[in-house]
Structure formats: C-alpha cells, structure tokens
Amino acid sequence: MLSLNEFLANVKRDYASDISVEDLLRYFNRIQRLIFTADTGKMHFLNSADPEFPYPILPTTAGQLEYDITQQGVLKDSQGNDVILLYAGRPVEVSDITSVFISNESVATYKGSYGYGRYEPNKNIFRLSLDAYKEAPVTIIQRDGFTAPLIVFQEDPGETGNVYYVDFTISPTTVTSLNSPASVDLERWEYELTTGIVGEVEKVYDGESAKADLFYKKFRKKIQDSMRNGRDLSVPFYVQRRDFG
C-alpha cells in the first residue's frame, strides 16, 4: 500500500524538486478538500456497515444537553458499537452537522414541550421506507476553526439509547506530516492525485495550469464517483420546517 510519505516523495522527485515538504502537504490537503466538495455540496456520512439503518445514533444522558460527535464513542450504530468515521474505507472528519432527527414512532414518548418539524430523507438516494421522521429541537453550533461542532438540546433529552439520529457532512482528515493517513486511496489514484498537486504548483508559479484544469474538470469527479460507490451522498436532505401540534 502506497503511503503518503512514498507518494509525496515520488511527486517531489519527479515533478517538484524545489518545493518544500510543507508546501506539498498543503497542496495535498487542498486536493483532498476539492475531492470531498462535490458540485452539489459536501458529502454526507452514511454508515454503510450498519445492516439496519445507515444514520449514526446519538445516545443521550439525562441532564446532559451538549454533545460533541467528533469524540470517539459518542455515536453508535444499531448494534451499539462505536461508529468509526470512514468513507470508502478511509478516515474522515465531521464537517457540518445538518440535523438531529427522531423516528415518528418515538415522538409520542420523547416529544417534550417543543414539538418536532417534519424530516424527510431523500428516498431516491437512500431507498428508505415511507416512515416519517421528525427534526429534533436542538441548536447546532458548527465548527469554528479548531472548535468542534456541538449539538445542544433545547430541553433535557433524557436517557436514550436509539432514539436520536444524526445527519452530518464529512471532510477529509488534514494531513500534518508525512505519516498522516490520507482520506483518498493513494495507490489507486496516484496519477490523478499527482496531476492535481503538480497543477497546484504550476498555478502558483505560472498563474495557470492545464493539469489543474484536468484534475478539477475530470479527475476530481472520477474519484468522487468511485468513492460514492454508486450513491450520490452529496445531495442534502429536504427539511420542511413546520411544527406538529
């Protein structure tokens, strides 16, 4: 398996001998972010390994209002196992929290005093049943620099195990050294990724680059389509914001 160290060493030797390792890491991060940002928006996380439901579960504790889903062990699957943030088998990070939602059958028990707006997953994408979902009354604090995104319940959610589900978008892990894990398969996409990095170098020094255009217009989408494994995970859900009495 091609490591990031080996990959960037090849790029530096063949195309960018005058470029520092720090700059190559920066260009690589830029390329990864481009791959994880589709034309229709950021990619959403689905736990394809869960046989029952692809959305991660957020178990709650009585009296606790705030939850940081970037912490290991906070999100669970339908079997009670920790959700590992992998996309196409590669490590990823939480980008933006889209919504916290609850199944229709649980609303009667956990409705509280706020009510729930209707939540409709896109059935053409996820092929879910016709069961309705409700958007839970939470405040979402998005990531700000190095601050993790937070879910803040507007009232005590109580002690729950499999009531609340979380929909969020993902971003690649930021590589900070040559030993960092990449969020893209380096061996499979070595040529395409090399083209993208060399294109970034050429843009800096020449102001334009045919390689950069080739990566953005063709190779980026090629990698995206393969990573989605036949499903467009970048299309956001439609949320109809209204309250039910």
Key words describing this protein structure:
alpha+beta, 3-stranded antiparallel beta sheet, 2 domains, 245 residues, 6-stranded antiparallel beta sheet, 6 helices
**How far apart are the first and last residues' alpha carbons, in Å?**
56 Å
Count of distinct structural domains: 2
Elements, N to C (H/E): HHEEEEEHEHEEEEHHE
How many DSSP-defined strands?
11
Mean pLDDT comes to: 82
Which band does the percent of strand residues land in? 15-25%
Helix content: 25-40%
Oligomer designation: single chain
What do these coordinates show?
It is elongated and about 60 Å long. It has 6 helices and 11 strands. Strands 4, 5, 6, 7, 10 and 11 form a 6-stranded antiparallel beta sheet that branches. By secondary structure, the protein is an alpha+beta fold. It has helices at residues 4-14, 21-35, 104-110, 123-126, 190-206, 210-228, and strands at 37-38, 41-42, 66-67, 86-87, 90-103, 117-120, 133-135, 138-141, 150-153, 164-172, 238-239. Mean pLDDT is 82; it is low at 110-130 and 230-245. The protein has 2 domains: 4-40 and 176-228, no CATH class; 42-172, no CATH class. The longest helix has 19 residues, at 210-228.
Structure summary:
By secondary structure, this protein is of the alpha+beta class. Helix content is 30%, strand content 20%.
Question: What secondary-structure arrangement, pairings included, does this model have?
Answer:
Blueprint: H1 4-14, H2 21-35, E1 37-38, E2 41-42, E3 66-67, E4 86-87, E5 90-103, H3 104-110, E6 117-120, H4 123-126, E7 133-135, E8 138-141, E9 150-153, E10 164-172, H5 190-206, H6 210-228, E11 238-239
Antiparallel strand pairs: 1-2, 3-9, 4-5, 5-7, 5-10, 6-7, 6-11, 8-9
